[in-house]
Each structure stands twice: as C-alpha cells, then as structure tokens.
Amino acid sequence: MRKKEKAISRIFVRYIILVFFGIFLSLFYRLFSPLTTTLSALLLDIFYDVSATGNIILLSGVKIELINACIAGSAYYLLLILNLTTSMKAKPRAYSLVFSFLLLLFLNVLRIFILSVLYVTNFAFFDFTHKFFWYVLSIVFVVGIWFLTIWLFKIKNILVYSDIKKISC
After folding, report:
1. Are 74 and 25 a contacting pair, CB within 8 Å?
2. What residues does each domain of the chain span?
C-alpha cells in the first residue's frame, strides 16, 4: 500500500471511530458515571459523612444526584473529536487522549466537590455558581484542556486541515 493510501485509511479509521462514539455516546456516561460518582464521594468523604449508591451521593443526609450533565460525557466526546481530527502519530495520540480525559475527570470531580460543599452549606449564591460552572467553566475546561494538551504534547498539526492537506497533496 502506498504512503498516501495508508494515510487515507488511517484518517478514515479515526473518523469512523468518531462516528461510532457519536452514535454510542452513552458509552462515555457508562464509563465515567461510576468513576465520577465514586471519586467525588471519596473526596467528599474526607470532610463529610458520605455514602454513594449508583449516581447518588448522600452527603451529611443531603441527597445529591449526578445526572448525565454532571458526568460531562459530551465534554469527553468533544475532547475525543479534537484529538482524532488532529493528525498525529499513535503514541502521542494515546498519551494526549489519556491525559485530557484524566484532567477532565479530575476537574469535574473538583467541580462536583465544590458545588456539593456549597449546596450542603446553603451557600446563598449556589444557583448562580452552579449555572456559572455549567455555562462558562465547562467550556473553559474543555478549551483549556485542549490548549494545554497541544502545548504539552507539542502538537503542531491543525485539526481537520492537516488531514485534508495530507490527502490532497
């Protein structure tokens, strides 16, 4: 197989993977829901009396339900899209993907921890803070993680454009 044909087949496989995960977006929620709930409960357990069952955390007698939006499955998918639509070798792709997913998981658990503490302590501006995290910081998290990933892994290619350039030359 010629070099250009190999490049085209690799690009095709990456985009097929994206379509697959787009169709089965629930896979992100199945994977990250128990991780997010468990890690959030463990962090909260340092400071409070906590128990977790399924996607519900009982925090000092207060029920906190982590719905799909809390799990941020779409944010993981967006990071996957950014990663797979950027041309790079397999090893840095795998490392950068694991890094970005773990960083998003860490930031999401931290976000849930902060919001849970604010909720339990009846913080006066909880609703505002919750909406600010949802509408503003969720975007900042994903964009910031992607820019940090580009910088740390020295990614020089431009998403989609580098693929088009590779197959058109």
Report:
1. yes
2. 3-168
